[in-house]
Amino acid sequence: MSTEQGRIGRRGVLSWIGRIAAGSAVAVWQPGIFARAATAKSQPPQRIVVLDPGHGGLDPGAIGITGSYEKDITLSTAELAATLLESTRRYKVVLTRRDDEFIALEDRVARARAARGDLFLSMHADAIPDSGVRGASVFTLSEHASDAEAAALAQRENRADLIAGIDLSRHTPEVSSILLDLARRQTNNQSIVLARKLVTELGRDVRLLNNSHRSAGFVVLKAPDIPSALVELGCLSNKDEEKQLRIATYQKKLAGSILRSVNDYFDQLGAA
Ligand SMILES: [Zn+2]
To answer: In the chain, which residue ranges form alpha helices assigned H by DSSP?
Structure first.
């Protein structure tokens, strides 16, 4: 992402797309106007951060060597992160689940979109065959996987109200596809910014896997209009890390890293 894009911010871009879609703006990029609009506001609006504690209910997620359930670790860490984020008053936090509830992956994305999330963070704890490996890692959606899935999501939702209130059904398929692609590219760029912040901040506090930022076709990362990342808080398949992941002070450390990442993310966008 260029510095210029970083200054303009996501809402500026979406607003620009929206105005073109509504026929009220010429299709010429004018970088300065959104930056000025953002700095003119004295009281920035609260951002909506959606935290998604992985698994729940019948689905325990990964099970640790001594029997810890991933679904419990993700929920308690998400709750700690929510408390920290809300204490800044910069954010309103929405949890996709607040108790031991099973939620389908698509429903998690739907909840994030219904909440009009500005950012979506899915939280997990991995189990891998090599019990000697430990460390946190962060995922974003792979560029390749996102095309077909974003298109399918658009199809399911009849292309209505998909991007910041723009009714794509009013446009020809060609225009809709261009608008969707613009929004998705912007979202992907911002997701990568978010993931890099997470890797940096987690790396200050906890051990990371060697390849700490990866991309994959996770269903929960497929909202075309919400920057999203998935964090694996650590490996439950490693005895020492499982022990740490169960402890509240360690979970607080992870929550603190998430708070700093989210702060940095919105600071960089210049939109918070
Ligand atoms: Zn998981």
So the answer is: 3-8, 10-21, 31-40, 70-87, 105-114, 143-156, 173-205, 239-246, 248-269
156 neighbors 265 (Cβ within 8 angstroms): no
Query: What is the CB neighbour count within 10 angstroms for residue 64?
Result: 23
Ligand 1 center from residue 213 Cα (angstroms): 16
3-state DSSP assignment of residue 184: helix
CA atoms within 13 A on the CB side of 246: 15
Q: What is the pLDDT of residues 116-170, one digit of tens each?
A: 999 999 999 988 888 999 999 999 887 554 445 545 544 554 443 445 455 566 6
160 phi and psi angles, rounded to 5 deg? -95, 140
DSSP codes, 85-131? HHHTTSEEEEES-SSS----HHHHHHHHHHTT-SEEEEEEEE--S-T
Q: Cα of 150 to ligand 1 centre, how many Å?
A: 22
Label residue 216 by pLDDT band (50, 70, 90).
confident
The rounded Å distance from CA 122 to ligand 1 centre is 9
| Model confidence pLDDT, tens digit, residues 95-124 | 999 999 999 988 999 999 999 999 999 999
What pLDDT, on a 0 to 100 scale, did the predictor assign at position 106? 86
Q: Which residues surround ligand 1, an ion (CB under 5 A)?
A: 54, 61, 124
Query: Residue 196's pLDDT is what?
Result: 96
